[in-house]
Design a protein that fits this description.
The chain is an alpha/beta fold and about 375 residues long. It folds into three domains: about 5-175, P-loop containing nucleotide triphosphate hydrolases (Rossmann fold); about 180-245 and about 340-385, no CATH class; about 255-335, Winged helix-like DNA-binding domain superfamily/Winged helix DNA-binding domain (Arc Repressor Mutant, subunit A, Orthogonal Bundle), CATH 1.10.10.10. Helices cover about 50% and strands about 15% of the residues. The protein is built from 17 helices and ten strands. It has a five-stranded parallel sheet, sandwiched between helices. It has a three-stranded antiparallel sheet with strand order 6-8-7. Helix 8 (about 180-190) crosses helix 9 (about 200-215). It is globular, with a radius of gyration of 23 Å.
Length: about 375
């Protein structure tokens, strides 16, 4: 699997941890939507810092009960801690306090500070339903701010992170993950067995992948890997790769469905929110009034629905006009949120429109002409040039 190297961002985070940047040591909070590379960056940091000095923790996977969360932290840790391991036997509040104490007191060799990489840290909200744990997020933030250890946090819920961290101590540094550049995508393709370094076709491939993926690492990885695999039967075809990935059963369609459903289930008003996303998938950007008319709801109730979608970062508002935060997710809704699976012709049409919207005007615009049977019996996506 391609794990992109992002040297400038990695240096920024490491400088914040060790205090070499102005302002002294800080706690970086990495903010990015689905597929933005939060997890891959943490895994890279773990290897750069050293696995004996840094512990990666996928909070989303182990936020079940406070007791089991505390046990999972300790069982997978390379660090020693003087805090007793019987906290989980005394109930939910004691177990969560034990987890906070472990994050604070764990040390590496020679009593040096430990580094914890907390992926999806907002998932500790799961514990708010347990007795005495209504303020778990504030408790966590306060414990990390006062600890002598080092922490890097991530979350996909950007709006919620901003609200939580609005009034916290200054050592929390919000870092919005920027898209990969075409050069970073090119370097990643090369490091994962792509074309030769001096092959000009790799530049073309990187530019196309960058445009189609909007620089999102997960999307770029899937498109680049599929296009490179297709190159064994001819020229690398990122547009054909995108079409196959977004077809029913495609890995990119599955990734978009995960993001779509996860965010909707974390918001209020599931059905109404899906209806608004369907409206915006057909036409965007739209004003509140335009959405309310199409939805046949009052402006007041529609405004509530829109605020709930913004809360989970599914939509953005610019100059009072609403649109999808992620264009790829809009493509997914257009193709898959319907009563019937999309036909090959419908996929070709939607991918064609998406490509024309995303390719730079200086690039030759490519679109799908349809699917043909390959000599080996597999389906292959064809492309034609569009003036």
């Amino acid at each position: 699997m391609m794990i992109p190297e992002r040297p400038a961002l990695e240096r920024r985070v490491l400088a914040a941890l060790d205090g070499s940047a102005p302002g002294g040591p800080r706690i970086p909070v990495l903010l990015g939507g689905c597929g933005s590379g939060r997890t891959s960056l943490l895994l890279r940091l773990r290897d750069l810092i050293g696995r004996s000095q840094a512990q990666y923790i996928d909070v989303e996977r182990i936020a079940t009960t406070p007791e089991r969360f505390y046990a999972a932290l300790r069982e997978a840790s390379p660090f020693a801690s003087h805090y007793g391991d019987n906290a989980a036997d005394r109930g939910a509040r004691d177990a969560f306090d034990g987890a906070l104490a472990f994050l604070d007191t764990a040390r590496v060799a020679e009593d040096a500070p430990a580094t914890f990489l907390l992926d999806e840290f907002l998932e500790v909200r799961t514990f708010e339903s347990f007795p005495g744990l209504r303020t778990v997020l504030k408790d966590l933030v306060g414990a990390l701010a006062s600890s002598g250890n080092r922490f890097v946090l991530t979350t996909r819920f950007i709006a919620r992170a901003h609200r939580l961290l609005r009034d916290v101590p200054a050592q929390f540094e919000l870092v919005h993950l920027s898209p990969l550049s075409a050069g970073e995508i090119r370097a990643t393709i090369a490091s994962n067995g792509g074309r030769e370094d001096d092959d000009p076709r790799r530049d073309d491939l990187a530019r196309m992948v960058h445009a189609l993926s909007d620089g999102r690492p997960a999307y770029a990885r899937m498109i680049a890997e599929a296009a490179t695999a297709m190159a064994t039967r001819g020229a690398a075809d990122p547009v054909g790769a995108l079409a196959s990935l977004m077809a029913p059963g495609g890995t990119l369609a599955a990734a978009c469905r995960f993001c779509y459903e996860l965010r909707l289930h974390r918001a209020r008003g599931y059905g109404a929110l899906k209806a608004i996303l369907d409206v915006l998938a057909r036409e965007e950007p739209l004003t509140l009034t335009e959405i309310a008319l199409r939805l046949r709801r009052t402006p007041g109730s529609t405004k509530d629905y829109l605020s709930w979608l913004e809360d989970v970062d599914l939509i953005v508002s610019r100059q009072k006009r609403y649109s999808f935060a992620d264009p790829m997710l809009r493509l997914y809704v257009r193709l898959h949120c319907r009563s019937m699976l999309p036909s090959e012709e419908e996929i070709a049409h939607e991918i064609h429109a998406y490509v024309l919207d995303h390719l730079p005007t200086s690039e030759p615009a490519l679109a799908l002409a349809g699917r043909t049977e390959a000599a080996n019996g597999e389906k292959s996506w064809g492309i034609i040039e569009i003036d």
